[in-house]
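Appendix B. One record, verbatim.
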Amino acid sequence: MYINSTGFYIPSGRVYNDHFLEVNGLTSDWILKRTGICSRSKAAEDEGHNSMGLAAIANALENLPYDIKDIDLIVSASYSPYDTVATLAHIAQQKYDIPEMKAVYASAACSSFVNGLEIVEGYFAMGKAKKALIVSSEHNTYYSNESDPKCGHLWGDGAVAFFLSADRVSENDAEIKHIYTRGLGNVSKGPEGVRLRPKEGGIAMPDGKDVFVHACKYMIQALDGVTNPEGLTIQELSYIICHQANKRIVANVAHQLGLDDDHFINNIEELGNTGSASAAIVFAQNRNKFVKGDKIGLTVFGGGYSCGAFLVEI
């Protein structure tokens, strides 16, 4: 499976740490030390889940080597949709008037994007699609509660889009060598670790320590799941992109692997936790940094619990 083009959208609005002192009593220094976040992106009043996703698609179209009407599958992967019936996949199909295609919504918390990739892989393997679009848009601030001292200061907004093909389209395509996903609902806090119930306070993380511990463990296991089948060790990867939930999680993963910070690429300092879009956004933001032969491992952990990873070779 090949990546033909990537695009992303980050709102220009920023919420800085100082904002939370009066909102939930947390100091800027405390937030920075505990999360690595200095600011987080926030969608404007006239922006939302759908508009951000469409903007990411438009950004990816700038370098797409074929017409968008050639795709036969759109997967919207997210946990913060504006509408759970008419999803972003359907909105995109309508905007670009693409007939005879499948539109699917996938949600697995912060591993939604990776699970969405696996869905695309399955359609390709069955011969039911040849070109696809996966788009992930997270409007966390629409659902988050800033006054929650446990997680109200974490969330940022953003979107990312990948155009994919079963066969290589151009010499500039990057190849997804392997995808790994795993549900972890039977592990520890499981479905209660992180939740989003709009009528019951929005996004909540009752036990952040439990999420932290299991994210550190299972993101490494997920990386093993995509490197081992390719005869690689994690240490042989050119770069690692972790789910941007907490910079201390990235530091812990690096310590366990015996790798220095240069192996890891992050954007959490500026954007906060942009959910299932986060790791893919980092990849799209740095696409021009990667050179032929680079191997990039993207690994994520989702509340629920779940984990996933995919290996990209440039």
